[in-house]
Amino acid sequence: MNKSPLILVTNDDGMNAKGMETLISVARKFGDVVAISSREPMSGMSHAITIKVPLRVKLVEDEPGLKRYITNGTPVDGVKLVFNSLAERKPELLLSGINHGSNSSSSVLYSGTMAAAMEGAINHIHSIGFSLLSFDPDADFSASAGVAEEVIQAVLENGLPDGICLNVNIPAIPSEKIRGIKICSQANGYWKEEFEKRIDPNGTTYYWLTGFFHNREPENGGTGTDEWALKNGYASIVPINTDLTAYKVMEELRSMGFAQIAKND
Amino acid sequence: MNKSPLILVTNDDGMNAKGMETLISVARKFGDVVAISSREPMSGMSHAITIKVPLRVKLVEDEPGLKRYITNGTPVDGVKLVFNSLAERKPELLLSGINHGSNSSSSVLYSGTMAAAMEGAINHIHSIGFSLLSFDPDADFSASAGVAEEVIQAVLENGLPDGICLNVNIPAIPSEKIRGIKICSQANGYWKEEFEKRIDPNGTTYYWLTGFFHNREPENGGTGTDEWALKNGYASIVPINTDLTAYKVMEELRSMGFAQIAKND
């Protein structure tokens, strides 16, 4: 009999997040789980790593099939700690989330959840990030649990291309209303910030980062963006490159003014 | 007569970094500069944004052609602040760096310098990140200043494709030894961590993140990776996608096990 696969579960919403509990429960159906997260939420940490302060790790749960750690580090620190110091063997699969809130479109760039998945992919671990389109701490994760189970099953059976991880987003609607799961592209959009300027009791100005997401291609159902799929009742899967090279513009760049500076090219 | 272009200069090494001073000097040859950075270094912050604490900003220098701010925010926060609150007009160009240390290969993912450039690209500003392959606070930036000037000139003349920024790395060798500038791909490599485990005076374990970069394709001069170019005396330019979609694997994914779960696709 084969050994159970080892599955690393992490998130960026902190150790008590309902989304992570959900993902650990789903993961345990497929193998042994080693989970790591911060005590407090770490949203918006992206691919940050901790260089200036030492990392702390505490084993907070240890039962057959589940080891659980907390750390003061970022999501990416946590992944590195498990790969290099905490796990007795190499995880076969990395699952991140289920995030409370969307990581579709360009939100992927700010997301600690997706950075953890990208860190897995760089290290040749099949990696998937999951996000539910609801910030509610007590959101209903039953539909996302179902989607997660289906996607994990498919990845365990088929693997993933080298250096690629999956960005899975799930609309906040009941399971029976989800129309399916679509392979999508990252919608062209950005966060339009509106800094809220306030004055503190000492008379000094400060700002709160607020804003709203602006989709530059709202009607783009044709090429299948994640935003379009989610708005239309589908869960979306965007395959994410960890090689950021814009290959398709390399020739264009070479033929532009840059050629003149490539002295000995 | 045309108004001077407005150039946003930022970095992740803090306001006193020699690399940023160098870049501001180069930028002033091309237009008016608005500079923003943190007081202390922010290396490894990647695309992190500040959500939990308010942002502070202070104008520390205001002379003809140069406004300079410091903030407690990350490099990406700083860019957002300038775009949305501090600059009187939209910058034509964003320059980030010159970073003390390489941002080649997968280091692009951890880099606050490159995250700032990517934030610019998402907002349709021509954006370039520069890094010198030396961590020395007092490194010789004269060769990188020359490279930066040439690249900026080319970008102001030709523009950049939408959603793409440039990751420029410069070897730490004298100007006359630089063989040219090559348009490259991001080398396939990763940071192999070796956490240093220590015991503090209270008997509690802690870890320092250390490690070394491992290039998976050291001999790959054929397709022109950045690592190869830098090792061989060239400055490297990698065009960086802010759309992370792995388009080339979408069909493969659709034909794998995922099709079965795309119920109504």
Please, could you describe this protein's structure?
2 copies of one chain form a homodimer. Chain A is of the alpha/beta class. The first copy, chain A, has one domain (6-187, 218-261): Survival protein SurE-like phosphatase/nucleotidase (Stationary-phase Survival Protein Sure Homolog, Chain: A), CATH 3.40.1210. Chain A contains 6 helices and 13 strands. Chain A has helices spanning 18-28, 75-86, 112-122, 142-158, 226-231, 250-255, and strands spanning 6-10, 32-38, 57-63, 66-71, 93-100, 126-132, 164-170, 180-183, 189-193, 196-199, 205-208, 211-215, 234-241. In chain A, the strands form 3 sheets. Chain A has a 9-stranded mixed beta sheet, with helices on both faces. In chain A, a hairpin with a 5-residue loop joins strand 10 and strand 11 (205-208). Chain A starts with 5 loop residues before the first strand and ends in a 10-residue tail after the last helix. The model of chain A has no long low-confidence stretch (mean pLDDT 90).
